[in-house]
Amino acid sequence: MSSAHPVLVEVLRGDTVESFHRGSIAVVDAHGRVVQAWGDIDRPVFPRSAVKLIQALPLVTSGAADAFGLSEAQLALACASHGGEPEHVATAAAMLAQAGLDEAALECGSHWPSYAEATHALARQGGTPGALHNNCSGKHAGFVCLGCLLARQQGHDPRDFVHGYVQPGHPVMREVSAALQAVTGVDLNTAPQGTDGCSIPTFGLPLRALATGFARLGTGQGLSTDHAAAARRLRQAIARHPFMVAGSGRFDTRVMAHFGERVCCKVGAEGVFCAALPEAGLGIALKMDDGNNARAAEVVLARLLQRGAARDAADHAVLAPLAGPTLLNWNGRAVGSLRAVFDPV
Asked: Which of 92, 183, 237, 264 is deepest in the core (most CB within 10 A)?
């Protein structure tokens, strides 16, 4: 199937193409009208962490964010795939404490921080990784806060109620899945379903629907009043605290630290990227066939942003090294580069 998709990124060693990455892209408005497309945008893909902003909507619409006094930085972390840096870990822990629980409530699993310096520091201290270091701990802390509010409303003990919140039939996941369905317009009952890396359900959705959903998140069009207000609040929190969404040196943080509310973007595992461009009224969803996140997906989104979001020289200066990164060897020598080979209009 991937052979039908166009080559979007080439990898050069010197001046010679050494390898390439195929993929598909949908650029869509909030009415579902396709502005540009490459490849098959109707084949279901698992968006993985790219839809964390959607998954955080019930945290706000339920009243849990206000009930537990969550700050903007904490709301941004609820939408994050963070690097496990100390500020990320402390913020996730504080979210849980404000709901009256602790790290033991998290069901995302443990791994070493994805930010290398944080891993080295933790190892030097003789520490071991916990669930708070998981890149999804902020999202899961948000789920726990939502579960605690539901428990309070229904007269249950919060610790007992939130147990198993990652299961598809748990009230927390039912709220999260309902938000995903409402925003994208996809009937999740008929969509492919799997389990994400952090143990929650993940659904196969067409890029067309994902892009439409992100256009709606950016404009509020096509959303309920509550979802539109929650999306705006979360986007503002992300724009004001972009470090929380990813971390030091990461693409999402770098882009949103510069563009603010003009761009809201989020990477997902296996080469997925989604973005909302509120001023243009557009949503973007892309998938690299080979699952390449670290370089190919970023190059594609940066190229799209060059055409769809950049206004001036400062914008282009931020995007240029992301759209055409230089490849260095272990001696720090430039040995090649990446380049986008599709032409957005």
From this structure: 92
**What's the pLDDT score for residue 214?**
98
Angle of helix 86-98 versus helix 137-154 axis, rounded to 10: 0
pTM above threshold 0.85 = yes
Scan for tokens 């404009």, then name that residue: 219
CATH number at residue 30: 3.40.710
In this structure, are strands 272-277 and 34-38 parallel, antiparallel, or unpaired? unpaired
* Whether the predicted pLDDT of 294 surpasses 80: no
Tokens of 88: 């990320």
Q: How many domains does the chain have?
A: 1
- Per-residue pLDDT reduced to its tens digit, 234-266: 999 999 999 999 999 999 999 999 999 999 999
How far apart are alpha carbons 48 and 235 in whole angstroms?
Answer: 19
Query: Where do runs of H (alpha helix) occur along 47-136?
Result: 52-55, 57-61, 64-67, 72-77, 86-98, 116-124
Residue with tokens 């166009």: 6
Burial of residue 147, with CB atoms counted within 10 A of its CB: 0-12 exposed, 13-18 middle, 19 or more buried: buried
Residue 72 lies in a domain: yes
Residue 111's domain comprises 2-340
**How far does CA 102 lie from the centroid of its chain?**
24
Q: What is the 3-state secondary structure (H, E, C) of 252-287?
A: HHHHHHHHHHHCEEEEECCCEEEEEECCCCEEEEEE
Q: Report pLDDT digits (tens) over 13-25.
A: 999 999 999 999 9
